Amino acid sequence: MSSSTPGKSSTADQTGASGATGGTGKTVPERTTATEAGAKAGGKPATKSATKAAAKSAAKSATKTPTESATKAAAKPATKSAPARKASATAAAAKAAAPRKAPKAESHLAMVRRARRINRELAEVYPYAHPELDFRNPFELLVATVLSAQTTDLRVNQTTPALFAAYPTPEDMAAAVPEEMEEIIRPTGFFRAKTKSLLGLSAALRDEFGGEVPGRLEDLVKLPGVGRKTANVVLGNAFGVPGITVDTHFGRLVRRWKWTDEEDPVKVEAVVAGIFPKSEWTMLSHRVVFHGRRICHARKPACGACPIAPLCPSYGEGETDPDKARKLLKYEMGGRPGQRLSPPADYPGKPAPALGEG
Fold this sequence. Notes:
Order of helices and strands: HHHHHHHHHHHHHHHHH
Strand content: under 5%
Shape: globular
Oligomer: single chain
Distance between the termini: 146 Å
């Protein structure tokens, strides 16, 4: 028989109850001690220090959230080993040193489209483009064009008022005293050769064309001192016959724009004539020459102030800084007088000064 008293639990029962309540009288969930875990895992009981370390590690892990762990991992910069950095630098240097592919060649059709767009853009920039020689009739234009060789239109315009006052017609000029004419046209340079040409063409007009300037190319080029360029100027501006004037400005610009590589003016004229309709020839000539004199200069083009820069394959040959480029603009584009003493009514610039006035 048991010696335990009814209503009281035995010592063994009390011990079991204490384990279940933790000695506090409160029920707590069962947990496996570190010793038991060690015994289960390896069959050896864990030491006291190992038990504490395991408990501390578990507590630390439990306090960290997944977000914190990911944030720390992302914040830590990835480092490359020295060999990896060296290999990356070598690859970058090799890429920089590798020859670049040449730009794709422009087809003829693409060039024609670009050239015509340039002409349209120039028409908007220079709606007032015109021949920059003062004249009142075909004879004056013919004489002024002959005088313009190797000098500026401005100097010709400053010289011709006195010349035409002395010799208003071909007959008058043909009868001039050479020495007197030389003194008048001296400011234009090469005055002896130019006097000889003017006397010869005036005599030819008087004797062969009844004192009138002919309106055909084949007749004009037979006159002394008159070439194809001069003939096209006269035909296009005095007779309304379309013509392309290939002077130094025109030739320089069409080569910069890659319309042609030709140097010979006659060949340049033929190439450009094939790009544009005949109705555009005369005004195209004025626009290109205007642009060459005002913006696209021979030595230092004002690239940074050029309205057709996106269409120009030679962009960058001149000044690209906009402020510096604007200082290179000439004539009305730069706020200074033009080349004509009597410019057209729609010209936005100032008239040029007379000879000796500036």
